[in-house]
Design goal:
The complex is a heterodimer of chains A (about 120) and B (about 600). Chain A starts with 5 loop residues before the first helix and ends with a strand. By secondary structure, chain A is an alpha+beta fold. In chain A, a hairpin with a 5-residue loop joins β3 (about 80-85) and β4 (about 90). The model of chain A has no long low-confidence stretch (mean pLDDT about 90). Chain A contains 4 helices and 5 strands. Chain B is α/β, with parallel strands linked by helices. Chain B folds into 5 domains: about 10-95, Glutaredoxin (3-Layer(aba) Sandwich); about 130-340, NADH-ubiquinone oxidoreductase 51kDa subunit (Rossmann fold); about 350-430, Ubiquitin-like (UB roll), CATH 3.10.20; about 435-525, NADH-ubiquinone oxidoreductase 51kDa subunit, iron-sulphur binding domain (de novo design (two linked rop proteins), Up-down Bundle), CATH 1.20.1440; about 540-594, 2-Layer Sandwich (Alpha-Beta Plaits), CATH 3.30.70. Helices cover about 40% and strands about 15% of the residues of chain B. Chain B is built from 23 helices and 19 strands. In chain B, strands 8-9-7-6-10 form a 5-stranded mixed β-sheet, with helices on both faces. In chain B, strands 12-11-15-13-14 form a 5-stranded mixed β-sheet. In chain B, a hairpin with a 3-residue loop joins β3 and β4. In chain B, α16 packs antiparallel against α20. The two termini of chain B are about 35 Å apart. The chains are: A alpha+beta (about 120), B alpha/beta (about 600). At the A-B interface, α1, α2, β2, α4 and β5 of A face β5, α4, α5, α8 and α10 of B.
Amino acid sequence: MSVKSLEDLKKIKEEALRKREIRNANARAHITVAMGTCGIAAGARETMKAVLDAIEKDQIAGVLVTQTGCIGLCEFEPIVDVQVGEETKATYGKVSPERARAIVTEHVVGGKPIKEWMITR
Amino acid sequence: MPDQFYRSHILLCTDPECLAKGAQDIEDALVRALDAHGLRDEVDILETSRLGHCHTGPEIVVYPEGVSYINLTPDAITEIVSEHLLKGRIVQKYQFTAEVRKDEELRAPAAKEMRIIMARCGVIDPENIEDYIADEGYAALGKVMSEMSPRNVIDEILKSNLRGRGGAGFPAGRKWEFAANQKSETKFVICNADEGDPGAFMNRRLLEGDPHAVLEGMIIAGYAIGAHQGYIYCRAEYPIAVRTIRIAIRQARELSLLGKDIMGTGFDFDVELRIGAGAFVCGEETALMASIEGKRGEPRPRPPFPAVSGLWGKPTIINNVETLANIPNIIRRGADWFQTIGNEKNKGTKTFTLAGDVVRTGLIEVPLGITLGEVVFDVAGGIKDGRKFKAIQTGGPMGGCIPEQFLETPIDYENLGALGSIMGSGGLVVMDDTTCMVDIARFFMDFTQDESCGKCVPCRIGTRRILEILEKICKGDGEEGDIERLESLSKFIVAGSLCGLGQGAPNPVLTTIKYFRDEYEAHIREKKCAAKVCKGLISYRILDTCTGCMVCSRNCPSHAITGEKKQVHILNDDLCERCGICLTVCKFDAIVVE
């Protein structure tokens, strides 16, 4: 599709928002891994892999995994955001592959956020 | 030495705490056990710093499995070697298992931050244009294309008082106005993403986290000045940013937001990526343009300014990544809104990278006009390890070092300039009281003299001479008149250099002389380095409290320490390299630096 007018742009925006809504409605959880240079340097690729492996191994349905850039807390990388349903988003710091697996099983599946690993604001 | 292949590597923590708990005995036991099983050629032992659990040390980590063993004794080692390394069975009773939860509290910088240009970073998926559009992305472009003339756009940017974020702080609107007023069929927009200051990574982060915002800013700039081609000049050292830019350009083209007939208005604009080859000076606008043209990256005199005669002699605007990322926000929310942020002459927010001896390093976005002290103590959480603040360097290697008495200074272009420093692109390095200011000046001069392109003699040779004088002072060979020589050399370099590199290179030297002259004098006259950093001015001595544990003599790489067991050891000053290892390994505080 190509944007030939303001209307077209609005359509894309609405479509994107609608997709996002459907996605959020269908997904019971949304996991976002920060994959900027700082994140990757701190091991975000391994973290991402661990998240995907954990989801696949336990065949957890309805979990959406996306990536994002750096949020500025480079010292706490790898950073992973977890949003389960309508709960407030949890931001985890220094997420090693082990922690990532634990976050998937305990928070995403078990519904118990792991407070100790969260970045407090 | 040929590379030896080991099937296993053992990391042994030789942090003072672990050494105090017997890490040396563990190493001896490891060697014995490996020898006993004939595994010495297959398993490598590496001494490392803290592995993370020194309070439960001694500890080792065995790779490739990555198993962490803690609370070790020589007997435990015997067992681990015969079970794990010989038979491949992990010895669970010594293994550190995931009680990682009792970790330090992770606390993010709070309140005083204000995220506008970084609002989407770390939130959206940078590789998905829909995510950007869903979040008001390209709405500013839509507004420009549907209801604003190029003149309206320039007026809005002028009114916002947005100043260039690349360092010089020139009003972006005026730059655009100059270029717009030029009569030329061909004009160019360049995004300067050659972020070369050591420790600065604001632009990288924006490009990696929100690349479309920069593209949108460029398209709007192109429309405002009447350009149809843009270039993003990004350094090769940012492979992930390069990747996200490429993806963003492709996606924007697919939606016809880049290319011919943008949004059906008949306006054409496309962007190409150019990758720098590593020269620091190519961050300077005229050198950058020479580099895009395929020439040697060297600056040229201005005027003519790029807005009049830039890339291939055509009117060109060069804006920093962050400047361009501000544009969509200003257009969408209006110049009046932008005016509400910042102080009188400095509007909007600025991103900074925080590095050095502060609790929280990383990236921040704060309104301009916030004080240095607020950034160091409120946003960055103060100085690490309870030490004392000594100086903050703003603006990268060409910035000045600002001492404690100016912590109340607002961070803006004028105030930093008045202190002899610069805003630069936004690198902040905080130094504690263990920093020697002469050594710091030497460090930065080492960088700038290395990066001087060589075109202007004062910069090429002057920086070299300054470095030599500073090295001499650090070695303890400083003489009367050196400070004055540094000052006069600096003056010539500033006056006789074409570009910001030479004009800014003496800043660290001049500011350290201005604010820490006593340190220079102590180095030269008393041959003393108060911070105990300069190796030529310090020596190590072993006190009578030495218990003769032999840890220092075993760890000394230059074999400068001798002595019998349980006897006070002797340090041979001629052999001593002043590496400081003995100081860190001594458990009895029996070694002093003088």
